[in-house]
């Protein structure tokens, strides 16, 4: 289920459920966001004036052009896939919580810091378990742009054959 | 802060905080998702095999090509903006919860059904308040693809001048 194509040069080894402990931390690579990316995402998925136009955004709660929260969320996912959450089987979320304490702006350089909160083997499915991960998306100034806590399905290492 | 450009032919009137009550319901237009859209989103934001390739997806938890949950979330936002949540001032989320009970598949036709859960005027800011909205994203078979509950900032109607 893992793919060599997900392993990049210098990428950390992929963790199975058995390899993870509460408190484990991971840091993603960076992504630099510009105005063109913000507007392109907004046009497709969140076409509201404060995500599309500098002038129109000035008179809104945002006070200037800001990325859609869903753009910040999608970029956070990209950064987790690109090394920020090195999980065997990929990153498969069942659900969770998300908040955007500050707007994401043109010129922000994003990275994601994640921490394993809990690791729970499945009682009914011996091949997998549930991991709760808390991820904080920050810009280059240390501003928290997104805070999320998600449940992920993570496979176990194949069981040893019975003796 | 509202924009005429958000009003489309037949679009419902935009609601201020004062117009909303718990239990109010809204239904979005539809969006038809195809394989090309799923792969394009995945390439940019969630480049994992089960979102990019039919064959690679077969051996995974998804059992076949599935959209990124963040793609479902982004399309849900699009549908809310396109009439599924007719709020004055736009749709500005502070945070919330989200879950994906079933994968979104190529050929799914999505729409969003939303319900106002609570309406709370701000104590410190008389020009606005917080509305909690529960939104369910369904396909043409009635399968629930996403369930979310988010806090939104909604402006009040301008207060009448003091007598």
Task: Give a brief description.
Chain A is built from four helices and five strands, in the order E-H-H-H-H-E-E-E-E. The first copy, chain A, is α+β, with helices and mostly antiparallel strands and 163 residues long.
CATH superfamily of chain A: Hotdog Thioesterase
What's the rounded overall pLDDT mean of chain A?
A: 91
- Show unreliable segments of chain A: 1-9
Kindly state the percentage of residues in helix of chain A: 10-25%
Oligomeric grouping of the chains: homodimer
CATH class bucket of chain A? Alpha Beta
Q: Output the CATH topology of chain A.
A: Thiol Ester Dehydrase, Chain A
CA radius of gyration of chain A: 18 Å
Would you tell me the structural class of the helices and strands of chain A? alpha+beta
Q: How many helices of chain A?
A: 4
| Run of helices and strands of chain A | EHHHHEEEE
Question: Which strand-content bin applies to the residues of chain A?
Answer: 25-35%
**How many separate domains of chain A?**
1
Describe the largest sheet of chain A: 5 strands, antiparallel
Q: Could you give the distance between the termini of chain A?
A: 26 Å
What shape does the CA trace of chain A take? elongated
Strand order of the biggest β-sheet of chain A: 1-3-4-5-2
| Largest interface between protein chains, with number of residues from each side | A-B, 40 and 40 residues
The assigned CATH architecture of chain A is Roll
How many strands in all of chain A? Answer: 5
């Amino acid at each position: 289920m893992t793919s060599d194509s997900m392993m990049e040069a210098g990428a950390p080894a992929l963790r199975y459920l058995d390899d993870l402990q509460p408190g484990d931390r991971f840091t993603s690579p960076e992504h630099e966001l510009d105005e063109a990316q913000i507007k392109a995402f907004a046009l497709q998925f969140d076409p509201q004036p404060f995500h599309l136009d500098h002038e129109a955004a000035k008179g809104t709660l945002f006070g200037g052009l800001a990325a859609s929260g869903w753009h910040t969320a999608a970029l956070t996912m990209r950064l987790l896939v690109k090394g920020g959450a090195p999980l065997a089987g990929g990153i498969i979320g069942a659900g969770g919580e998300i908040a955007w304490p500050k707007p994401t702006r043109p010129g922000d350089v994003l990275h994601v810091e994640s921490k394993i909160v809990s690791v729970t083997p499945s009682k009914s499915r011996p091949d997998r378990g549930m991991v709760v991960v808390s991820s904080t998306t920050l810009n280059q100034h240390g501003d928290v742009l997104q805070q999320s806590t998600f449940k992920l399905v993570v496979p176990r290492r194949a069981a040893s054959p019975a003796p």
